[in-house]
From TrEMBL:
InterPro entries: Calcineurin-like_PHP, CNP_phosphodiesterase-III, Metallo-depent_PP-like. Residues 6-192 form the Calcineurin-like phosphoesterase domain. It holds the Pfam family Metallophos. This is 3',5'-cyclic adenosine monophosphate phosphodiesterase CpdA. The keyword Metal-binding applies. It comes from Thalassotalea profundi. The gene is cpdA. Keywords: Hydrolase, Iron, Metal-binding.
Length: 253
């Protein structure tokens, strides 16, 4: 079976101004570098997509640390990105402006389109606007398959982060249901490696969540508590038949 695209997804770094600082006990800068170095060692990966929440303390230094982590890992493949609820779009554009960063939100291959959607809203929860849905309709090529990527999750996952999920899930799935060519939704935000399907998805499109480079959430807790798992990421393989193969990886302790 021909693999049309093979790429990495990493997410939710929650970096701080101090590279040595920890977030809920995790050395987040070192975690990020470790994930990036592992991605770099995979010769099949064509590019990487960062799905948001670069910063925890909203400092300029945290954005600079992200740039320096990319440099330290010696990643040379294109790194695409989108905003998470913690992020500032202006700072993202300012800091992630030179290679290997690529601010394109549409990645085209022979059989596939990977489309990056900005779900950041005025609150920690996510939302897609009418204008964004209209733009999506104009972008989708029904002769290809699509994977959509965004920060927020478009299906409930069963723990506290659902308070900050995608607000307009029903609207979202009404639009997605128009296209049998959409084969997967990939997101960050939930700090765990999950695969869920929304009850309103006519074509049973999976929502694939990516483990964080910072911490994985304890799914039994009522707020942010580390589950004690290592930093993680995903490798997505998009096949010429429309099949999506997605494998999550955790760094060795």
């Amino acid at each position: 079976m021909h693999v049309d695209l093979s790429f990495a997804q990493f997410t939710d770094c929650h970096l701080l101004a101090d590279k040595q600082a920890c977030h809920h006990g995790a050395p987040v800068y070192q975690n990020l570098v470790g994930v990036l170095k592992e991605i770099k060692q995979n010769p099949q990966v064509n590019f990487a997509v960062f799905t948001g929440d670069l910063t925890q303390d909203h400092s300029d230094e945290s954005y600079q640390n992200f740039v320096e982590a990319i440099a330290e890992s010696q990643i040379t493949i294109p790194v695409y990105w989108l905003a998470g609820n913690h992020d500032d779009r202006v700072l993202l554009n300012n800091f992630l402006s030179e290679a290997p960063f690529n601010n394109a939100k549409q990645i085209e291959a022979k059989y596939w389109q990977v489309l990056l959607l900005d779900s950041k809203s005025e609150t920690p929860a996510g939302e897609l606007t009418k204008e964004q849905f209209n733009a999506l309709h104009q972008t989708i090529n029904p002769k290809k398959f699509q994977m959509l990527m965004m920060h927020h999750h478009a299906v409930d996952v069963g723990y506290f982060i659902d308070h900050h999920g995608l607000n307009n899930q029903n609207d979202f799935w009404q639009h997605i249901n128009l296209y049998p060519s959409i084969k997967a939704i990939a997101c960050g935000h939930v700090h765990n490696a999950l695969m869920k399907k929304h009850k309103n998805s006519v074509y049973q499109v999976p929502v694939i969540t990516c483990p964080a480079t910072s911490i994985q959430f304890d799914q039994t807790a009522s707020s942010v508590v580390s589950a004690g798992l290592p930093a993680g990421y995903r490798i997505h393989q998009l096949c010429s038949t429309g099949e999506v193969r997605s494998v999550y990886h955790f760094l060795a302790n």
